[in-house]
Known about the structure:
Layout: H1 4-14, H2 21-42, H3 49-56, H4 66-88, H5 94-104, H6 136-150, H7 156-170, H8 177-191, H9 204-217, H10 221-234, H11 236-242
Helix pairs in contact: 2-3, 2-4, 4-5, 4-8, 5-8, 6-7, 7-8, 7-10, 9-10
Amino acid sequence: MDFSHLDRLKAKLDAHRPLSQEMLSNLHEDLVLRWTFNSNAIEGNTLTLQETKVVLEGITVGGKNLREHFEAINHKEAIFYVEELTTKNELLCEHDIKSIHSLILKNIDDKNAGKYRDINVLISGAEHKPPQALEVSAKMQEFISWYKKEHTNLHPVELAARVHVDFVAIHPFVDGNGRTSRLLLNLELIKHGFPPAIIKVENRLAYYKALDIAHTTQNYEPFLELVSQVCVESFEPYFYLLGL
């Protein structure tokens, strides 16, 4: 797949870096909100964008359960952790994945937070069946070995998309795999200087379909196309603020 269009967009943004502190702060606040809202909404969280905004500001929304509040707060913390990881310029490892997952399930399911599953699971509505619980640890080691071998061979967008697809195929945790996979996608994108890509809740059907195709047929193209399109859109807020 050709990623030259994305490389051109990145070069255009890079030409204006470093961005001013005011601009970065404005972009970051909007990004954290939209990323948190969409990623949680894909998983069934019923907080609206505006409700998510007030929860992230520390206000409780009436009529919404505690879990939904924690999902928003935890996701924000997980984003901050991912951003911290990007500054270290290190390769992805199992410890980082477990740490991200721990934040996702904090105060929701502390028993399983950051711990690989010991039960077999099905992905609701998907044809793909994740590996048995006994295989999870070995599959995750294989996944990290593949990543270490391929991380310099693939275009950053393809690498990020593959990390998402292959991680979620293993489904190593009882819950929180989707949110973790989207954080891992963006961990790789940010590391390589691309803006975080936010998969929107309205694209959930196409997103799930593309994932299942990749998992069952090893055809990554539909998912790569979806991620590429989301990456193109992710430059828009930057160019808008820069008046480009």
